[in-house]
User: What shape does this take?
Amino acid sequence: MQLIAGNWKMNGLLASIAELEALIASGPHPSAALLLCPPATLLASFAARARGTHVAIGAQDCHPEPCGAFTGDLSAPMLADAGATHVIVGHSERRIGHGETDALVRRKAEAALAAGLVPIVCIGETLEDREAGQTLAVLARQLQGSLPSSGAAIVAYEPVWAIGTGRTPNPDAIAAAHAAIADHLPGDTPILYGGSVSPANAPAILATPGVGGALVGGASLRAHDFLAIAGAAR
Ligand code: PGA
Assistant: This one.
């Protein structure tokens, strides 16, 4: 069973629940577990609709503290209270756009676990890192710095240069990265691949050794495409 997770990023309005309805109507899939991470404004309504179905609902980020004077932030207990079961932490759009460090990502992952959420910890090299032959070193550093010290996390390998670009590493490069990542993790840790996953490339990516599923951005916005990707899961 592979996990097919959708990250809607800053997309989606109340009317977008039609996409969730289509995912629910498709019924459970024999080899894909579905997780949808809408923006926080939609979490409670999506989680209420998805309760008892095969679609899980997750959040895209959390604050490391459980509560306090942090204007505009959302804590892990709040996300759990809204019905989330998972939370993405350390996405490159947070690391780069909001200056998040490995140490902060670790605190967020630990806060998620403390609130009963499964953290999806994102790591990935930039194009500059890859061209300098530093991919595996960067991944090792990010894993050492941002994984929670205990507890079960999911890891998402998302090469920064593959996100939203239509470019992906070839299957050998994905397999090499996943094998290197797995060396740092307990054996049962799912490792998702993310970055320009589409219905067209999903069969090859999801068949790559070591790939435990996909974290899908743009192609998760339409249930039709997201379900086509889930259909390639094994
Ligand atoms: P993408 O985004 O599928 O649009 O490339 C993936 C992600 O950022 O999680």
In short: The pocket of 2-phosphoglycolic acid is lined by residues 7, 158, 163-164, 194-197, 215-219 (CB under 6 Å). The chain has ten helices and eight strands. The mean pLDDT is 97. The longest strand covers residues 2-7.
